Structure formats: C-alpha cells, structure tokens
Amino acid sequence: MPQYPVREIRYEDLPREPFRCAEPTIYAVLKAGVRFEFLVKRQPRSGRAVVFGTGTMSFPREDWPCFSRHTWMGSVPENCIFYFDPTLYLGAVELAWGYGTNERWFLAEIGEILSVILDKLGVRREDTLMMGSSGGGFTSILLATLLRTRCQAINPQIDFRRYKESAVKRLGKAVLQPGEEWIESRADAVALMRAEQYIPYLHIIQNILVEEDIADHILPLINELCGKHMACGYDRIRLDFYHNIEGHNGMPPKDKCLNYIRQDLEAPFPEASAGPLEIVPVEPVPAEDAEPVRFECTGEYLLSGRDLTVLLTSRTRKKYGERYAYYLYRDGQILERTGYFDRMKITFRALEPGKYKVKYFVKAGAAKESFMMEEIAVS
C-alpha cells in the first residue's frame, strides 16, 4: 500500500481539524487509548461521500493499517473515506466486524468520528454511501443504521455469529472476557435496526453461487424485514445477484461496482419525502390469551475421531422461531460457549481426550430453556 502522509489528532481536538489536506491522508484519531485510523481523500467540488469498510485483513500486521479498495480513489469522483477496524489490534484475528469489546463498541466510535469528518467535508448524511463487502458489508450496514445514510453491501454478513465458526471463535477469544456473551445489537444487523427503530436505504449485491451466504444471511434478512417481524417501507431495500465462480470472495467487476455506487448515490433517498421510518413490530398476543412456550427439542452426539458434533432436532422450531446456544463442558468446567444463532448443528474440533458434556439453550423471544446432554468420552 502507498505510504500516505499521517496526521495524528487527539479526539478532543477533532472539531478543530479542517480535513483540508490536498492529497489523500491518514488521520489517526487517538481516543481513550485507542487509535482510530481513517484514510481521507477530499474532493472539494463534490457534496457526496463514499465510506469504504474493511473486511478480512490478509496483509501482514506490520503493514497495518490497510484500507480495502483504496486504489479506487482515482475512479470515484466523490469524497472518499476509508476506515480501519482497531479491534484487529486486540488479538490474533483477521476479521473483527468493528466489535471492540463488550465495554467499548469500536464501530459506534468509528461512526462518531465519521460524523465529524462528514460535517467538515460539507456532506449530508443522505449524500453519504457506506460501502463494503463481507465483513466490511456488515459494518457498512450497521454504520448506515447508526448514521442514517445509504448503504451498499456485497456478500455481507447480517449476523456475524452465523459466519465461519473459526473466525467467530478467534474473535471471541480475543475480545470476550470469561462469562461474557456477544451483545445482540452489535452482532446482528437486524437487532440494531430494531434498537434504532430505523432501516437504512440498503442495496445488497450477492453472489448467487454462494448458497451458505444466501441461507444464513440473505434469506433471514428478507424474512425479518419483509415478513411478519418488521415493516421495511417502500424502496428501502434493493437486492441484486451476480455470478462468480470464485465464491464468497469473488467480487463483481470493478466497473460494475463503480456503476452501482453512482446509482446508489443518485437514487431517491427515502427520508426526503417520507420522513423517518418507524419499524412496526408484530402485535403481541395479550398475556391472558398467550399460549405457554413448550420447546420440544432433543440433541444427539456424532463423534468422528476427536471431532464432536451436536445435532439438534426440534418439533417447535418453525412455530416459535427458535435460536440456539451451546456450552461445552469438560470435567465439570465450561470449555467453550457460543452466543445464540439459528444453526441446529455445531462441531467442536480436535478435542483432547476426556469426558465431555454439552448444554444447549433454546430461546424464542423472552422464553428460554436449557438442556444438559449426557456425558460422552473422547479418546
């Protein structure tokens, strides 16, 4: 990556920084012991901005910060801002979804700093497009929800806990303290939309060949936003498919992406005429008429060498919209734990010889129940 000039700024001094460098510049904002890094290319003749998110970081750590698609600056005739996720500095992780820690949500702090930068550049929120792919698509959706901007996301995660188990586990090991679980509104984009009572202008571009992306992220999003749970409004969601045999990491051609950026910035912004959108939840059943929740869920082990798989079967999954979490015990102590997700199958790999138990949790709305499975020996 080119050696861009760097300006270091204390967060307290941010309002006095003009952001008027003539060449692309990295602004390192020091805030409460954390270094937030942004690459900014100012375009004085434009009243629009594209904010690029960072997904999996495959570059060597000594080359950080790195900014996805920074080479596109010369092809985008707007203000360009790129942000780096400081969560990556917390441990041996390559993908962190802006999580930070349970005490500090770094993505929200990135949003605070972006707000100042956009104001300094004279760009309105409705003229701002958050753009990214995969994990950068996830953070783009969340930032668009927090800042009330537009969003374009390619092959995004919607709930990162449903992404690659190994990546989620690595992040949890780096940022979660013993006994902590993932905070729902930071891990699930739809949960944040509910909390914020806002759905952004959202353009999702999905590789139709990646079945797991569609099953684990796109279809649940459609179910939530356009089904019985929330009313998403008119012209807020656009979904395009493309075809690339390289799978999840296979992007559309650059010229196609640039054309999508232009289209998304020029599209009518929903708030311009309709006013703020209110998410309409399902009308709750009156308590006196509500049927008691009775989960009918069983679990079984599948042991292959030292890989232990738990497979759940539920007769009530569709009825209640269940989600599941898992605790792995060895010798009475919790060895691993997960947050809640939709998967009814989980594999704990390369276990040491010993006696194990799995406790699984079933949750639907406010109802929750746990089930302890029998002990199994791994040799």
Task: Describe the protein's architecture and organization.
The protein is α/β, with parallel strands linked by helices and 379 residues long. It is built from 9 helices and 17 strands. It folds into 2 domains: 269 residues, 3-Layer(aba) Sandwich (Rossmann fold), CATH 3.40.50; 91 residues, Immunoglobulins (Immunoglobulin-like, Sandwich), CATH 2.60.40.10. 23% of the residues lie in helices and 28% in strands. Strands 1-2-3-5-4-6-7-8-9 form a 9-stranded mixed sheet, with helices on both faces. Strands 12, 13, 15, 16 and 17 form a 5-stranded antiparallel sheet that branches. A 3-stranded antiparallel sheet has the order 10-11-14, with no helix packed on it. Helix 2 links the parallel strand 6 and strand 7. Helix 1 packs across helix 2 and helix 2 runs parallel beside helix 5. About 4% of the residues have low confidence.
Mean pLDDT: 87
Q: What's the count of strands? A: 17
Structural class category: alpha/beta
Number of domains: 2
Provide the spatial order of strands within the biggest beta sheet. Answer: 1-2-3-5-4-6-7-8-9
